[in-house]
Amino acid sequence: MANTTFNGSVRSENGFKQITLDAAGAATDNFTVDSSGNVSGTGTLKLTGQANIRIAVDNSTYNTGAAVTDTLTAAESGTIFNIDGTDDIVVNMPALSTGNVGLWYEFIITTVVGGGKTVTFVLPGSGVSDFMGMLQLESGTAANPVGDEGGDTLTLAAATQVNGRVKLTCIQDDGTNSKWKAEALSTPIATIA
Fold first, then answer.
1. Are residues 116 and 71 in the same domain?
2. Engineered SS bond to 106: which of 18, 60, 80, 153, CB 3.0-4.6 Å?
3. pTM of the prediction?
4. Are 104 and 22 found together in one domain?
5. How many domains does the chain have?
6. Average pLDDT of every residue of the chain
7. Predicted confidence (pLDDT) per residue in 8-20, tens digit
8. Residue 100 to residues 40, 75, 105, Cα–Cα distance (Å)
9. How far apart are CA 26 and CA 20, in angstroms?
10. Is residue 1 part of a domain?
11. Buried b (16+ CB within 10 A) or exposed e, 14-31
12. What secondary structure letter does DSSP report for 8?
């Protein structure tokens, strides 16, 4: 097929696709822009010039002042979540899936974790997934990082101060077992069990 050159904008109400065809003529989408402007692709993205990319910040899911139990989705990867620790917060990581590798989420405490309350991050499939954590005290004399691994629940205890933070990244998931890198900076120090 010949190349086509346009002078002016190319417009579509239903998106764009770049495809490859196999020997049987079946099409594989390599790059798509859907009708809402969402972009996905399987190749390498190379930009020249300045990119204006903003990280999503969620100020509502866990920032309510009430108890919340929620399960994250792959679509929320890359989001920073603000957390009001007034009541118990339970953050369940996405269900086991090979598609989870590379997903990441960040959390920051905006209101101190209440007395007798916790903020917990729970991996799916009890006993089959592990956090590999580097946990650090936010303030005080024992501010050296502590390595901890082998548990599926990371906990920020009662009285965790404002500005405590957690970053979780899926580094392995075969659909049956997973490992998540956990980085936590908090006072008191986070735990993994």
1. yes
2. 80
3. 0.79
4. no
5. 2
6. 91
7. 887 888 888 888 8
8. 16, 10, 12
9. 8
10. no
11. eeeeeeeeeeeeeeeeee
12. S
- The pLDDT confidence band at residue 4, using thresholds 50, 70 and 90, is confident
Integer Rg of the chain from CA: 21
CA angle 101, 18, 55 (to 5 degrees): 45
Amino acid 142 reads A
Kindly report the number of other CB atoms within 10 A of residue 34's CB atom. Answer: 12
The verdict on 36 and 62 lying in the same domain is no
Using DSSP, state whether 74 is helix, strand or coil. Answer: helix
Domain assignment present for 5: no
Q: What is the pLDDT of residues 103-120, one digit of tens each?
A: 999 999 999 999 999 999
Residue corresponding to tokens 């099409």 = 27
Give the span between the Cα atoms of 127 and 124, in whole angstroms: 9
pLDDT digits (tens, 9 = 90+) for 137-181: 887 665 567 888 889 999 999 999 999 999 999 999 999 999 999
Residues 39, 129, single domain; the answer is no
Residue span of the structural domain in which 19 resides: 15-45
Report residue 172 as tokens.
């392995």
Looking at the fold, whether 66 and 39 belong to one and the same domain comes out as: no
Whether residue 105 is found in the same domain as residue 160: yes
